[in-house]
Amino acid sequence: MAPKSLPEALCREAWEGVAAAGTIADAARAMGISRQTLEHRYHEGRRRFGWDDVLRSAFSAKAYKEQPRFTPPELADASEDIEVWLDRREDEFARKRAASDAREWMEFTITENAPFALVFVGDPHGDDDGCDISLLRRHVALIEHTPGMFGVGMGDWVNAWVGRLERLYGQQATTKAQGWRFAEWLLGKEFWLLMLLGNHDLWHGAGSPLRWMSRGHAVMADWQAKFQVRCGDKTWRIWAAHDFPGSSTWNRLHAPGKRAALTGHDADLFIAAHRHCFGLAEQQDEHTGRVSWLARAKGYKVADTYAANLGYGQAQDRGHSIVAVCDPATGRMTCFSDVEEAARYLTWLRRPRVRVPAVAA
């Protein structure tokens, strides 16, 4: 005759008792029954109800709870207090916001109330073998020795090859060290009003030597600058950028023209560089009547292997730098694509004026 099965309730009671006590012997003593009886009941539960995992988990938990306890050491927290960190972040943001606001249409004042000129010097790429160093030196001398002329550097002062492009130093006679010496010579001139950093310059990030070479000479800005120049009671607004967004195969002034149109022609001159070609145009908005100039400076890298390989023309012999001559007597701005021509015009404009007395009626 087959043995009679035990009720499930007895088996469950046995398993719960063992789970609470930890061992069959301890559970039997706690429950007041014999060890053999309790063992029979929980083995019956394992056979009939498959409670092995339940019991194993209970035993594991019981064993963990009975492990020896310890008191950990009190360690100083290296992290900054969150409130202190938040206060510091507020201060940092306030400084950055103030610095950004200060560069929004920053104002330069020409102390002499007389005609002056801003020479927007196109990309020099002074350490490149294709740089027309003779022409660049002649233009630099003109700016230095023409009264009333100031320089605005449009960026890409040197090739400053980085990463995989550093191999290109092996294809040019000028070394990297000589390139930095050139930059130091050019940025050290006293005529600079403003200097932009182009894509070649920004490859070195915040650690670019150009940032230190320019200290004490002029304002330096990354990529673009919106500024105004005051002389007497007249003010001219200029938006200069190494380049503006947008391009067109048919119009080299597309990018500055686009920026002018999208901002309501909110400047007297929109000028870019970067693309090694020049363009210059004067226009008047048909809605506001505001007159503005659009310009792109060619720069001094006139023998460009990269451009030649891509089929770009290199026959332009003007517009290496663009010159804006401003007359405080009339408030007019006149732009030139030839630095020498602009210097002659500025010198004529600054000539002593002979006033002829009016003839009595």
Number of strands: 12
**Largest pleated sheet:** 6 strands, mixed
Q: Which sequence of SSEs, written as H and E, runs from N to C? A: HHHHHEEHEHEHHEEEHEEEHEEH
Second CATH tier, the architecture of the largest domain: 4-Layer Sandwich
Q: What global shape is seen?
A: elongated
* Spans where pLDDT lies below 50 across 5 or more residues: none
Number of domains: 2
Give a quick set of tags describing it.
alpha/beta, six-stranded mixed sheet, 361 residues, Purple Acid Phosphatase, chain A, domain 2, 2 domains
Can you give a write-up of this model?
The protein has 361 residues and is an alpha/beta fold. The chain has two domains: 9-65, no CATH class; 99-349, Purple Acid Phosphatase, chain A, domain 2. The chain is built from twelve helices and twelve strands. A six-stranded mixed beta sheet has the order 1-6-7-8-10-9. Strands 5-4-3-2-11-12 form a six-stranded mixed beta sheet. A hairpin with a 4-residue loop joins β11 and β12 (332-336).
